[in-house]
């Protein structure tokens, strides 16, 4: 690659938060792996703690309907729907969803979804970091894709009322908050 291409790539990495404190690209974010803010293995970012104003970026490329979480590298719907679904339909809802003109959404794991909780926010919530850019988030439980290991008829949910995680029978109905990004099969 030329110097101009390298400089352009560094600009993308800076814009997306893929640059270490020394100004160099983080491992796994080279040109070959990086396709703008959505590319690369952004799970490397789980060791960062950022204030909401720096942590969340509303993505113009998604018609301002999605938010990049620079702590996790995941892309969340900016305004999750308020309709409720049982667990099986919740997974199907995210799989078929088009947000920001894009497909490829999924139900998040319990760990991914719980990463949005700010434990300093007291009920009734929503228990999100102050200054977050999300809209329409209910102070309610949201389904995760994670099934209870010793109870296959139950799944984990995340409460944005109390800021905790619980389990419920998969027949219960809760809203869904869909996400895009890498996933670990063991979480499903």
Q: How do you describe this structure in short?
A:
This protein is of the alpha+beta class. 18% of the residues lie in helices and 21% in strands.
Sequence-ordered SSE layout with sheet pairings:
Elements (H helix, E strand, L loop, with lengths): L2 H14 L35 H4 E3 L7 E4 L5 E3 L6 E2 L1 H10 L13 H5 L26 E8 L2 E9 L4 E6 L4 E2 L3 E2 L8
How would you describe this structure to a colleague?
This protein is an alpha+beta fold and 188 residues long. 18% of the residues lie in helices and 21% in strands. The protein contains 4 helices and 9 strands; from the N terminus they run ααββββααβββββ. The chain has helices spanning 3-16, 52-55, 87-96, 110-114, and strands at 56-58, 66-69, 75-77, 84-85, 141-148, 151-159, 164-169, 174-175, 179-180. A 4-stranded antiparallel beta sheet has the order 1-2-3-9. It is globular and about 40 Å long. The N and C termini lie far apart (39 Å). 34% of the residues are buried.
Which runs of at least 5 residues are low in confidence (pLDDT < 50)? 1-43
SSE order, one letter for each helix or strand:
HHEEEEHHEEEEE
The largest beta-sheet arranges its strands as 1-2-3-9
Largest sheet: 4 strands, antiparallel
Strand content: 15-25%
What would you call the shape?
globular
Report how far the terminal alpha carbons are from each other: 39 Å
How much helix is in the residues? 10-25%
**Radius of gyration from the alpha-carbon trace, in angstroms:** 17 Å
Overall pLDDT? 81
Number of helices: 4
- Structural class of the helix and strand makeup? alpha+beta
SS elements, strand count = 9
């Amino acid at each position: 690659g030329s110097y101009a291409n390298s400089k352009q790539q560094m600009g993308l990495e800076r814009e997306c938060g893929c640059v270490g404190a020394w100004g160099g690209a983080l491992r796994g974010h080279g040109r070959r792996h990086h396709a703008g803010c959505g590319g690369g293995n952004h799970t490397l970012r789980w060791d960062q703690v950022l204030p909401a104003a720096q942590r969340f970026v509303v993505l113009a490329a998604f018609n301002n309907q999605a938010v990049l979480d620079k702590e996790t590298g995941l892309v969340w719907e900016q305004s999750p729907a308020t309709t409720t679904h049982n667990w099986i339909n919740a997974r199907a809802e995210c799989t078929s969803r088009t947000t920001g003109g894009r497909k490829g959404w999924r139900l998040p794991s319990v760990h991914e979804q719980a990463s949005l909780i700010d434990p300093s926010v007291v009920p009734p919530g929503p228990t999100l970091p102050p200054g977050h850019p999300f809209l329409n988030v209910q102070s309610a439980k949201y389904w995760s894709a994670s099934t209870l290991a010793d109870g296959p008829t139950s799944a984990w949910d995340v409460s944005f009322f109390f800021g905790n995680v619980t389990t419920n029978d998969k027949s219960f109905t809760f809203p869904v908050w869909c996400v895009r990004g890498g996933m670990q099969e063991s979480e499903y």
